[in-house]
Give the backbone structure.
Amino acid sequence: MRQALPVIIDCDPGQDDALMLFMALNAPEFDIKGITAVAGNVPLSATALNIRILADICNRVDVPLFAGAAQPISRKLVTAEYVHGKTGIDGVDLYEPEVKLQEQSGVDFIIQTLTQAADNEMTIVATGPLTNVALAIKQAPELVPKIKQIVLMGGAMFEGGNITPSAEFNIYVDPEACQIVLGCERPIYMFGLDVTHKVMSSTDRVAAIRKIDNNVARAAADMLDFFDRYDALKYGSEGAPLHDPCTIAFLLKPELFKMKACACQVETHSELTRGHTAVDFWHVTDKEPNIHWAYDVDREGFFDLLEQRLALYEN
Ligand code: BDR
Ligand code: CA
């Protein structure tokens, strides 16, 4: 078997972040160095509690957990309780798990982990606003060569936005952070709404997950039941898009996705289009590609993988 991939996971749970963590935390393919929480879907106090609860549900209390940035780099925090509920992971009950956060800040943890890594070794998975990752890059630019790749959920091109007509939530919340990440000159795999809106859950798929009948799958189904409501009401869809798990699904099974190398810039000036990701999908400029943009996915293959991985939990 291949050596496990060293990974840092940065997230803002969020029910879809939770499913991303469920897929990652029992995968033998990963050596998870730590999970960092960032403010996004809900404030940092809630996302930091949520990573503790989610690691506890998965019985992975050995993974170090960190709280990162409480605010975007230069803007006021915008949250999304209207999508994810008050706690961010509505659908499961909150409790105070035994596992605690490490004292070190999430940003310092990313810097320290990169310091100890070899060149081109560390994978960063980011499924919230990019504040923590960008601050680490800004504070220690000499460590950027240690990054093998950044696999992130964010952005929208053909699909249009989900928080404004032109912007996706994660990028809208901290466009300056996105700009820093896009400029890092390391491989970036970007899963925006163009592809995440193609992995909608459905009543059948949620029922199949519930049938798996272990703690983790039950928590996943309970959260999906909640998460589906917003999209069903707003877009008339049967289920909700599983945005964040696309990152982990890609690392586990890249052949599920179609990717294209593109140049991408983010809007940081206009209030109207703040956070819009201008992806040069048709190569109409001569700008060098700085990302791999996901534009299609095998939906059934994605859900099969999700179910297979949830079924591997023992509790
Ligand atoms: C992204 O924003 C959050 O609401 C989700 O967790 C996902 O990361 C989708 O726009
Ligand atoms: Ca998220």
